[in-house]
């Protein structure tokens, strides 16, 4: 049986699949060529780049399993695929901690102005050192501040845990009733139960000093023009979930007025060509959709995805 890992798979995952007797092809097939070539495989794995919509699924009756390496499956018509008897699996827990750490890379970057000082020091560090020191010398700490987490799934909870470990207060919103506390696993096998507070999303937006978004894309932004108006002045925002969750043009306006102190973005409306207003803004910390892209996460994703494929292909 043949498996196409169209957006790649960790070598450990490939090794597991090959040891189980499967042929694994990791050569990327462009989206426009999949309709002609995908049907020669028994299963396909994707990340966020490849899209498996109803029209493509109909053209590939040989596909028995679709695997998504990661959490969100909005690039797959999941219900339709399952209605055709195709198993659709993903690895929701494998990359959660990696994404959460990136959120805090952006937050720490933001409160100490690293997003801008890293641009300015190579240009003016040797001639305007004192001026730059003064410009970036009014940073703040995360400890004692309120972190608002919008969406309290696996990634949202991992983000909250890091915030709690830094001494932040955590308030969150979710569509479902969530926990009143989280367990922190500290070094030395020490576990600590720390309280968190669930509230309506409007309360989270109003009361948070920093906000991290962990929700899927819907038909409208979670934070748009109206929502920006109720945020605290000087709030910091991070989006490592999906492009479109924040209204990007409204964000630029809020950054320009000082309503938002800084933003950290890992995802964009127009990937892979984000708009210039975002890429060039001096108050935005930027990464190219790398939330799950750590060596550790990729190994976990590869192992879990391989196990799920084997289970479903050998039924």
Q: What distinguishing features does this structure have?
A:
315 residues, five-stranded parallel beta sheet, 14 strands, 37% helix, 19% strand
Strand content: 15-25%
Query: How many strands?
Result: 14
In helices, the fraction of residues equals 25-40%
- Low-pLDDT segments: none
Largest sheet, in brief, is: 7 strands, parallel
Amino-to-carboxy terminus distance: 13 Å
Strand order of the largest sheet: 10-7-6-11-12-13-14
**SSE order in H/E notation?**
EHEHEHEHEHHHEHEEEEHEHEHEHEH
- Which class of secondary structure composition applies to the elements? alpha/beta
| Bulk shape | globular
State mean pLDDT (0 to 100 scale). Answer: 96
- Give the number of helices: 13
Rg, nearest Å: 21 Å
Family: Belongs to the D-isomer specific 2-hydroxyacid dehydrogenase family.
Keywords: NAD, Oxidoreductase
Domain D-isomer specific 2-hydroxyacid dehydrogenase NAD-binding: 105-291
Protein name: D-2-hydroxyacid dehydrogenase
What does the model show?
This protein has 315 residues and is α/β, with parallel strands linked by helices. It is 37% helix and 19% strand. It is built from 13 helices and 14 strands. The strands form three sheets. A seven-stranded parallel sheet has the order 10-7-6-11-12-13-14, with helices on both faces. A five-stranded parallel sheet has the order 2-1-3-4-5. A two-stranded antiparallel sheet has the order 8-9. Helix 1 links the parallel strand 1 and strand 2. Helix 1 runs parallel beside helix 13 (295-313) and helix 5 packs across helix 8. The longest helix has 19 residues, at 295-313. The two termini are 13 Å apart. The mean pLDDT is 96.
């Amino acid at each position: 049986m043949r498996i196409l890992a169209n957006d790649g798979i960790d070598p450990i995952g490939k090794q597991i699949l090959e040891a189980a007797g499967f042929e694994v092809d990791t050569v990327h097939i462009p989206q426009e060529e999949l309709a002609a070539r995908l049907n020669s495989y028994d299963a396909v794995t994707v990340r966020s780049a490849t899209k498996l919509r109803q029209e493509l699924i109909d053209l590939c009756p040989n596909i028995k399993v679709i695997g998504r390496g990661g959490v969100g499956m909005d690039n797959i018509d999941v219900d339709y695929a399952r209605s055709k008897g195709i198993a659709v699996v993903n690895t929701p827990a494998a990359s959660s901690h990696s994404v959460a750490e990136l959120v805090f890379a952006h937050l720490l970057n933001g409160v100490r102005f690293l997003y801008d000082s890293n641009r300015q020091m190579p240009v003016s560090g040797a001639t305007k050192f004192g001026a730059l020191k003064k410009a970036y010398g009014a940073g703040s700490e995360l400890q004692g501040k309120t972190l608002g987490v919008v969406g309290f799934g696996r990634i949202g909870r991992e983000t909250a845990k890091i915030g709690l470990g830094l001494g932040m207060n955590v308030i969150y919103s979710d569509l479902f009733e969530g926990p009143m506390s989280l367990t922190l696993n500290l070094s030395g096998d020490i576990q600590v139960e720390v309280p968190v507070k669930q509230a309506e999303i409007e309360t989270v937006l109003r009361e948070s000093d920093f906000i991290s978004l962990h929700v899927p894309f819907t038909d409208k932004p979670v934070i748009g023009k109206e929502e920006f108006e109720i945020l605290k002045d000087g709030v910091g925002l991070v989006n490592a979930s999906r492009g479109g969750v924040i209204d990007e043009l409204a964000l630029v306006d809020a950054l320009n007025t000082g309503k938002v102190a800084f933003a950290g973005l890992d995802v964009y409306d127009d990937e892979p060509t984000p708009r210039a207003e975002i890429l060039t803004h001096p108050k935005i910390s930027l990464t190219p959709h790398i939330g799950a892209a750590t060596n550790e996460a990729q190994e976990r994703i590869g192992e879990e995805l391989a196990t799920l494929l084997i289970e479903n292909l050998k039924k």
